[in-house]
């Protein structure tokens, strides 16, 4: 440190050259998010006869760097809704605060029925669509898992464009390619949901998390999993993948150090 | 009335030669006619109770709640002009939300009382406004646990720079009363409205400063005190409205909620019984 406070904490001009002031210009068009910065990868979820199972790993990546390894990407809204976030983590934090202020306002009066998963999904879809229409999207792909009226299982997604989609099985990010086929093998349609038990659904989601860890380079073996039923939410935020088997790795050919 | 304004009471914020602000004193008069409201700070929570006078038989019983929730963990009950009370609550909610926007955490009860005290006091300063015609009782539980800031996703360092301070104790039950002048104090037990005198003397008997009264006992005492305070205006019908807020380990899990119907009815039954008992004793003494 020297006797020039204005130079403290800055790259020294004599070492690095003068700072390029063009980075600081205030004129020109206003720019919004062009790409996410710190990101979470897949969220997977499946409906079963009494509720929904949803899971996401605990990693936040900075590009290809595994930057934060204890990030909780499943958020409880109330006793019957869990929201899972893929994509930008800071936008997730913004949405988390937005939802918590919504929850506070909802609870000013106790006489009204609480917001269910369907209500919340509608709300989030409007927020996301508004933001993309402002050319300032929230860079997330969101799964809303929970119960709608008469405690029916509810599962739907909304993405950064405000696109909504609903299905008995859903997965975001890499999971949309890798987990969704596995989920659909067990739960091909809405009619099948009735015959899927809680244990089956949990096992299925855990299997998907394992496959995702095998093949998704932005994933982690620590994950969170939540089961939503009419009895409440069972959220575990510090799960570890069990019984991994990397035997298949030897058979992989065609890239990396093993060219053929 | 000895406090005739003789011209010094026509405009707000004007002192009389002997140093009084009459408009504020008249606002206090408005409060003195309202239904009795009390708050009790117990060792594991706070109870708020209100004698809600029924102004019409056409009103739906149990509807039109008068005790309001601020954020999740604070309740406000007021006595005096109802619309002023509504505005007070609306401002308190804005203050709580504003605090969260700045600090990403719930507002402490003391900070809310401070901000609302300042807000109410500002209405004694200008000729374009009148003072609040309410005295509000603010009760809350500040969370004792280490909670994540809003939107926090990870746990951060457990030790060292940015880590946690060991053994730091914070949180607990808090109770404040804010008057039309903007004056606010913290209380063990607070009472306002028509029956405040008898309510206060009952509160004093509880020895709240000792910190022995549990929340459940507090609920029963609160119900009894409202019934006692109602004795002087027996001809009017009223509904008992009660809310409470406890620790995380307690019945409300740190949230401000209505006292469950069963417990409230039990408390009312005991309150009525206690009153009847008093009457019997009085009769005996007369004999």
Explain this structure to me?
Chain A: This is Proteasome subunit beta. Chain A: It is found in: Cytoplasm; Nucleus. Chain A: InterPro entries: Ntn_hydrolases_N, Proteasome_beta4, Proteasome_bsu_CS, Proteasome_sua/b, Proteasome_suB-type. Chain A: It holds the Pfam family Proteasome. Chain A: Belongs to the peptidase T1B family. The complex is a heterodimer of chains A (260) and B (287). Chain A is of the alpha+beta class. Chain A has a single domain (38-241), classed as Glutamine Phosphoribosylpyrophosphate, subunit 1, domain 1 (4-Layer Sandwich), CATH 3.60.20. Chain A is built from 6 helices and 13 strands. Chain A has helices at residues 13-16, 89-106, 117-133, 174-186, 190-193, 198-215; strands spanning 38-40, 43-48, 51-57, 60-62, 65-68, 74-78, 81-88, 140-147, 153-158, 164-166, 169-171, 222-229, 232-240. In chain A, the strands form 2 sheets. In chain A, strands 1, 4, 5, 6, 7, 8, 9 and 10 form an 8-stranded antiparallel beta sheet that branches. In chain A, helix 4 runs antiparallel to helix 6. Chain A is globular. Chain A starts with 12 loop residues before the first helix and ends in a 20-residue tail after the last strand. Chain B has one domain (22-149, 158-282): 4-Layer Sandwich (Glutamine Phosphoribosylpyrophosphate, subunit 1, domain 1). Chain B starts with 21 loop residues before the first helix and ends with a helix. The mean pLDDT of chain B is 91. Chain B has helices spanning 22-32, 82-103, 109-122, 196-205, 215-230, 261-286; strands spanning 37-42, 45-53, 68-70, 74-80, 134-142, 172-178, 184-186, 189-192, 238-246, 256-258. Chain B has 287 residues and is α+β, with helices and mostly antiparallel strands. Chain B is globular, with a radius of gyration of 21 Å. Chain B has a 5-stranded antiparallel beta sheet, covered by helices on one side. A 5-stranded antiparallel beta sheet of chain B has the order 3-4-5-6-7. In chain B, a hairpin with a 3-residue loop joins strand 3 (68-70) and strand 4. Chain B contains 6 helices and 10 strands; from the N terminus they run H-E-E-E-E-H-H-E-E-E-E-H-H-E-E-H. Chain A binds chain B through residues 60, 68, 70-73, 89, 92-94, 96-97, 100-101, 104, 107-111, and chain B through 65, 68-69, 71-72, 93, 96-97, 100, 104, 150-155, 255, 257-258.
